[in-house]
Amino acid sequence: MDGARFEELVRQELLEPLRRYLARRTDPATADDVLAETLLVCWRRRDDVPEPALPWAYGVARNCLANAERSVRRQRRAAGRLAVVDPPVERSPAPGSRDDALHDALARLSPDDAELLRLWAWEQLTPAEIATVLDVTANAVSIRLTRARAKLREELGKVEAAAGHEEPGGGAT
């Protein structure tokens, strides 16, 4: 089916029935998002659209809505786990602890360096896996990781020196 025929089909037969179908099943924002996703799937599969098109499009919308609902459930579960694993700032480690020093040092790094180190240390990802997450090469990750670790060591030294701890190469300050 060519683009003009598909646009005509959407305007005349699919758009409003799909909008009503989704509005009866979810909140307005989700309905709009799922409608857009449904029309995108229909566009991609426009050569597969049968006659009549509406029941098939309802099936596509139903699947897209199920995907959206699963995504929301996953996000809620992940947020719940994150709140337990990486608690909000108000439940931060005791002042003066090693964890407190680490959090202070991470906060002084650039957001990119801190994220890189968190992916490596907390999520235990390999440089190749981090490269996938950040959409860069594994070699770039290795180089950036080496630099970020050096910066973190430097920042930890500053935090510990300020707290009166020993410096790595000398006595107490």
Descriptive keywords:
transcription, RNA_pol_sigma-70_dom, RNA_pol_sigma_r3/r4-like, transcription regulation, 7 helices, 173 residues, Arc Repressor Mutant, subunit A, single chain, elongated, sigma factor, 73% helix, mainly alpha
Describe what this molecule looks like in 3D:
Pfam families: Sigma70_r4_2. Residues 100-152 form the RNA polymerase sigma factor 70 region 4 type domain. Belongs to the sigma-70 factor family. ECF subfamily. InterPro entries: RNA_pol_sigma-70-like, RNA_pol_sigma-70_dom, RNA_pol_sigma70_r4_t2, RNA_pol_sigma_r2, RNA_pol_sigma_r3/r4-like, WH-like_DNA-bd_sf. This protein is an all-alpha fold and 173 residues long. It folds into two domains: 3-85, Rna Polymerase Sigma Factor, Chain: A (Orthogonal Bundle), CATH 1.10.1740; 94-162, Winged helix-like DNA-binding domain superfamily/Winged helix DNA-binding domain (Arc Repressor Mutant, subunit A, Orthogonal Bundle). The protein is built from seven helices and no strands. Helix 1 packs across helix 3 and helix 6 (127-134) crosses helix 7. The N and C termini lie far apart (76 Å).
